[in-house]
C-alpha cells in the first residue's frame, strides 16, 4: 500500500529537499502545501503534487487523509518577526490550530518542526521574539493535543540549516547563503554585533535524514537535529575570508543554544557533514553552489 505524505512548506528551502528525498521512494505519494511567502516555484521537484494556499485553510485544500504530515510551513525568521508580527500570528498560531484539528480528524502522524530558539540563552530564548514564542507555544499545544485527543506526533528542532536553495538576499536571507552571495559579488560580510553569537550550523541533508528517521520511529517531544559543534558568527566570517562590516545589535538575536540530540541519536541518527568542509569546497568552486 502506498503512503500518502504531505509536506507543508514543500516549496521552501528545507521542505523542497524533503519532498525531493521522499519522492525517490516509489512507495510514497508526496504532496506539498505552500503559500509561497518564502517558498519558490523554482524549488519544485519531480513526482510531487503542489497545492497552493495557507495551512490555516488546510481542511478546504487537502481532500485526503495523509499517513504522515511534515509541518514545516510556518514563519521562520527571528529578528524580522518583530516587524512581521501579523504574518507570524497568521502563519504560526492560526496555522497550528487548523493543522491540529485536521490531524485530529484524519488521524495522520504529525512531524512538527519546532524552533531551537526554545532552548537558547538558558531557555530564555522562547520569549525573545514573536517568532520564538509562537514556535515554543505551538510545541506545547501539540503535546496537549496528544494528551487531550490522542493524536500521533513527533516534534523536531533544527539548528541553523544550510545548503542549496537557501534564500541568499533580502531581509529573509540566511547567514551562510548571504555570505556566499556577498563573497561572489566581492562585498563585505555583514555581521550583527557583537558577532560572538554561537550557532550550530547543520547541513540540510543531515536535517532530512533526521526528519525521515523521526517520522518512522519517533514519538513525542525533543527530537533535536543539529550539529553539536558551534561557531560564532565572526568565526564563520573568518572562514569565508571576506572583509567584515559590523552592524548594530538587533532585538531577539540570541547568543547561544543547547543542542538536544540524545533522542534522535538513539534512533540511529548522526551528523555526516560540517560547515568548514562546506566553505572550503565553495571557495575552491569560486563560491558557486
Describe this structure in words.
The protein has helices spanning 13-23, 58-61, 85-106, 130-149, 175-185, 204-217, 233-240, 262-266, 275-284; strands at residues 3-8, 28-34, 48-52, 68-71, 109-115, 152-158, 161-162, 189-192, 198-199, 202-203, 220-225, 231-232, 244-247. The chain has 289 residues and is α/β, with parallel strands linked by helices. It has one domain (3-162, 201-227, 258-273): Rossmann fold. Helix 1 links the parallel strand 1 and strand 2 (28-34). Helix 1 (13-23) packs across helix 6. It is globular, with a radius of gyration of 18 Å. The model has no long low-confidence stretch (mean pLDDT 96).
Write the layout of secondary structure elements.
Layout: E1 3-8, H1 13-23, E2 28-34, E3 48-52, H2 58-61, E4 68-71, H3 85-106, E5 109-115, H4 130-149, E6 152-158, E7 161-162, H5 175-185, E8 189-192, E9 198-199, E10 202-203, H6 204-217, E11 220-225, E12 231-232, H7 233-240, E13 244-247, H8 262-266, H9 275-284
Parallel strand pairs: 1-2, 1-4, 2-3, 4-5, 5-6, 6-11, 7-10, 8-13
Antiparallel strand pairs: 9-12
Helix pairs in contact: 1-6, 3-4, 5-7
Q: Which features does this protein show?
A:
13 strands, two-stranded parallel ribbon, Rossmann fold, 289 residues, seven-stranded parallel β-sheet
Amino acid at each position: 500500500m502506498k503512503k500518502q505524505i504531505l509536506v507543508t512548506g514543500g516549496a521552501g528551502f528545507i521542505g523542497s529537499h524533503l519532498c525531493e528525498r521522499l519522492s525517490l521512494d516509489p512507495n510514497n505519494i508526496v504532496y506539498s502545501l505552500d503559500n509561497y511567502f518564502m517558498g519558490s516555484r523554482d524549488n519544485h521537484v519531480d513526482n510531487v503534487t503542489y497545492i497552493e494556499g495557507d495551512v490555516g485553510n488546510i481542511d478546504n485544500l487537502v481532500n485526503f487523509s495523509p499517513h504522515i504530515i511534515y509541518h514545516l510551513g510556518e514563519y521562520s525568521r527571528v529578528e524580522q518577526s518583530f516587524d512581521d508580527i501579523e504574518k507570524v500570528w497568521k502563519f504560526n498560531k492560526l496555522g497550528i490550530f487548523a493543522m491540529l484539528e485536521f490531524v485530529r480528524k484524519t488521524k495522520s502522524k504529525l512531524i512538527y518542526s519546532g524552533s531551537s530558539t526554545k532552548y537558547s540563552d538558558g531557555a530564555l530564548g522562547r520569549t525573545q521574539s514573536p517568532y520564538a514564542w509562537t514556535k515554543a507555544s505551538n510545541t506545547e499545544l501539540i503535546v496537549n493535543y496528544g494528551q487531550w485527543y490522542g493524536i500521533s506526533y513527533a516534534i523536531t528542532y533544527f539548528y541553523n540549516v544550510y545548503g542549496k536553495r537557501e534564500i541568499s538576499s533580502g531581509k529573509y536571507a540566511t547567514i551562510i547563503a548571504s555570505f556566499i552571495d556577498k563573497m561572489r559579488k566581492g562585498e563585505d560580510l555583514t555581521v550583527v554585533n557583537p558577532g560572538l553569537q554561537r550557532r550550530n550550523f547543520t547541513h540540510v541533508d543531515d536535517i532530512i535524514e533526521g526528519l525521515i528517521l523521526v517520522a518512522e520511529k519517533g514519538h513525542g517531544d525533543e527530537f533535536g537535529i543539529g550539529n553539536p559543534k558551534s561557531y560564532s558568527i565572526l568565526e564563520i566570517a573568518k572562514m569565508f575570508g571576506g572583509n567584515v562590516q559590523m552592524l548594530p545589535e538587533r532585538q531577539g538575536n540570541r547568543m547561544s543554544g543547547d543542542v538536544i540530540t540524545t533522542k534522535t541519536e538513539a534512533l540511529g541518527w548522526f551528523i555526516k557533514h560540517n560547515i568548514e568542509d562546506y566553505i572550503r569546497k565553495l571557495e575552491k568552486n569560486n563560491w558557486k553552489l
